[in-house]
């Protein structure tokens, strides 16, 4: 006798129905990633910023897993968009009034209902013929539940101010009303009930062009924060650790710049582009956390040294292609040579802790340069410009922005061409 679960006896979704729902889930996850990318520079609270950078990568993985499953289903076109009502919902979620509203609307609203949709899908599909879908959804549920648990805790911290809480609650109520006007996320056909009106404080999302930090940070222009490589090479071992890991601790600006590229890139770019950039965004945020941790082990806190965000605030003023080229093909590729001697210096000094961190940073940077050359060349296909032409244009942007605002001048490790 065949031993099967009760759910194996269910007549579940057919292939077409399954594909329709998985496309919807993938669209919500992908648009969630884009919303988080848009908001990353706008978030001042450090712990929230670090978590959101990680969640951008989680969302990218969820989309990839869903796309892979769709590719296994007959006719499961992964790039076909979701229901118009769901797209409209996600286009509204980005317009949160502040970080607390973002957490309330996206996490405690959309993600909570998305979790219910995933669980409902598992209960309604046949766990033998559709076992691969169930395996994928269980993986996603685990991480989305972690996101929700985190959001519930951080929401309380971010809404201690009465005005902020009131605005966040109004926004969350609005988003919840939009969701309920559509129906359950796992319904084969969404309903189209009248949507509620937005709250009086409603303001469309608009990039501030700044990378925000909370009160723990002493924010200064990059030229006042970074030393030249020559100065760092002359430092003692302990001085070198502190100088280098202070640089790592500021690298959130790079995560924010990559996130801005995710937000600004055309939606029809290959999915692999967004996947690579989501990985790079999380890498840069990990480098910042790595710097923070190593400095803490040395008795240095984030408030003990100045930090810079002007590298973001200069780059985000460039077109997306120039911005991405500036960071990867130019800045990262042209300065990757400092990693090997830095690693060797720590190994020779017996500092295995610092060496471990630098070794992984070096590996990450190799990948970032690879991403840069791959996607810059892709975006230049059919363009009259060569890569050298584009790099010359980036230098012109650097000059122009440095002249317009002294705070955006390049840091000491760059040499401005005459």
Provide an overview of this structure:
With 418 residues, the chain is mainly alpha-helical. The protein folds into two domains: 10-182, Ferritin, core subunit, four-helix bundle (Ferritin); 218-408, Ferritin. The chain has 15 helices and two strands. A two-stranded parallel sheet has the order 1-2. α9 (252-264) packs antiparallel against α12 (320-335). The protein is globular and about 70 Å long. The protein starts with 14 loop residues before the first helix and ends in a 14-residue tail after the last helix.
In short:
The chain is mainly alpha-helical and 418 residues long. It has helices at 15-39, 46-72, 84-93, 99-124, 131-158, 162-182, 229-233, 237-249, 252-264, 271-297, 310-315, 320-335, 339-348, 352-379, 387-404; strands at 218-219, 306-307. The longest helix is centred in the middle third of the chain and has 28 residues, at 131-158.
- Radius of gyration, Cα only, in angstroms? 23 Å
How many DSSP helices? Answer: 15
Task: Please state the second-level CATH architecture of the largest domain.
Answer: Up-down Bundle
What is the chain-wise order of helices and strands? HHHHHHEHHHHEHHHHH
- Number of beta strands: 2
In the CATH hierarchy, what is the class of the largest domain?
Answer: Mainly Alpha
User: Mean pLDDT score, rounded?
Assistant: 93
Strand order of the largest sheet: 1-2
In whole angstroms, the N-to-C terminal distance is 82 Å
Indicate the percent of residues in helices.
55-70%
Task: Estimate what percentage of residues fall within beta strands.
Answer: under 5%
Question: Which fold name is given in CATH as the topology of the largest domain?
Answer: Ferritin
Structural class: mainly alpha
For the report, how would you describe the main beta sheet? 2 strands, parallel
What overall form do the CA principal axes indicate? globular
The oligomeric state is single chain
* Count of all domains: 2
Would you identify the regions where 5 or more consecutive residues have pLDDT less than 50?
Answer: none
